[in-house]
Write a structure and sequence with these properties.
Elements (H helix, E strand, L loop, with lengths): L23 H23 L1 E2 L1 H4 L1 E7 L8 H9 L6 E5 L12 E6 L7 H16 L3 E8 L1 H29 L2 H24 L3 E2 L1 H31 L5 H33 L2 H32 L22
Parallel strand pairs: 1-6
Antiparallel strand pairs: 2-4, 2-5, 3-4
Membrane topology: Multi-pass membrane protein
Family: Belongs to the SecD/SecF family. SecF subfamily.
Function: Part of the Sec protein translocase complex. Interacts with the SecYEG preprotein conducting channel. SecDF uses the proton motive force (PMF) to complete protein translocation after the ATP-dependent function of SecA.
């Protein structure tokens, strides 16, 4: 029995003929303006650093085995002290190595100028009042030096990821493809940072993971577009380059829309039901997927149009021909 396709896929046209390149100049100006604004916003007002990068205190909160700690009540009680970012996560008990809901780890910020011991005592009192008698252990403080090292390591991870993506595209395609892909990646990363600043999302290690995921998704979408573009350059050797780019983007459009919508639906559910800890992560990923699709169309491909392509390097039986930016009749 033949498997039926997804019914909603019939809503997408079988073939489109959008003139993407026609609006590439306007989209390029818009992207440059938004990227400049995003870069400026990262310095003023700046990122809302979380505990991982700003420093803070952590402690284990536990009840006797079999008694469950209500994590939401713990989080609300500490939030009421206006200490900034608060993270609560259930962990396994040390004595039994089993996660029965009776032990949690709490991380919170210690405001500058306030006594650390006093703040810890206030936190313990608020939690005890909210959830009853509990045991506190493993109190530790993450200093600013360690936080700075984590921040530097996070930025280094982003830089290495972009560099490796560039090498991959360069070896698989051509230099202009690699340059277009890297510019698209930088575009997506910068605008994602701008979103984080705009909505005052907490920038933590989770957000670094979100940006790395955005880089991977953007590269995946770009590779699909570039693969079809290279194939069409071999097939249509006399067609103007701008027409080949439009054709390739239209042929991959339905796949891009289906993949993007599916991912956004999952992330929307994660943002709604995943709680406060995963909300910023989900929002950043949703934005990154949308902007990654945009960059594949209006950042990566137009750069190839400006650079030009020697089709002889793409097909063994073709002679090198330098393509100009032929205008559409």
């Amino acid at each position: 029995m033949a498997m039926r396709g997804w019914p909603l896929i019939k809503l997408l046209p079988q073939k489109t003929n959008f003139h993407f390149v026609k609006y590439a100049r306007f989209a390029g100006v818009l992207s440059v303006v938004l990227c400049i604004a995003a870069i400026v916003s990262c310095f003023y007002p700046g990122l809302n650093m979380g505990i991982d990068f700003r420093g803070g205190a952590s402690m284990e909160v536990s009840k006797p085995a079999g008694q469950v700690i209500e994590l939401d009540r713990v989080r609300e009680s500490v939030n009421g002290l206006n200490l900034g970012d608060v993270q609560v996560q259930g962990i396994a008990r040390r004595d039994t190595n089993a996660d029965d809901g009776s032990t949690a780890i709490l991380r919170f910020q210690v405001p500058e100028g306030r006594d650390q011991t006093q703040v810890v005592n206030q936190v313990e009192g608020a939690i005890s009042q909210a959830v009853g008698e509990v045991t506190y252990s493993g109190v530790s403080v993450v200093g600013s030096k360690v936080s700075g090292e984590l921040f530097t390591s996070g930025l280094l991870a982003l830089g290495v990821a972009i560099g490796l993506m560039f090498l991959y595209i360069w070896f698989r395609f051509e230099p202009q493809f690699g340059f277009g892909a890297v510019v698209g990646l930088l575009h997506d990363v910068i605008l994602t940072f701008g979103l984080i600043v705009l909505f005052k999302l907490e920038f933590s290690l989770n957000m670094v993971a979100a940006v790395l995921t955005v880089i991977g998704y953007s590269m995946n979408d770009t590779v699909v577009v570039f693969d079809r573009l290279r194939e069409n350059l071999r097939k249509y050797k006399t067609m103007p380059l701008r027409d080949v780019i439009d054709l390739s983007l239209n042929e991959t459009l339905s796949r891009t829309i289906i993949t993007g919508v599916t991912a956004v639906m999952v992330l929307a559910a994660l943002a709604v039901f995943g709680g406060e800890a995963l909300f910023g992560f989900s929002i950043a990923l949703m934005f990154g997927i949308i902007i990654g699709t945009y960059s594949s169309i209006y950042v990566g491909a137009p750069i190839i149009l400006l650079w030009g392509v020697k089709r002889g390097t793409l097909a063994d039986d073709a002679k090198p021909v330098k393509l100009g930016m032929a205008s559409r009749p």
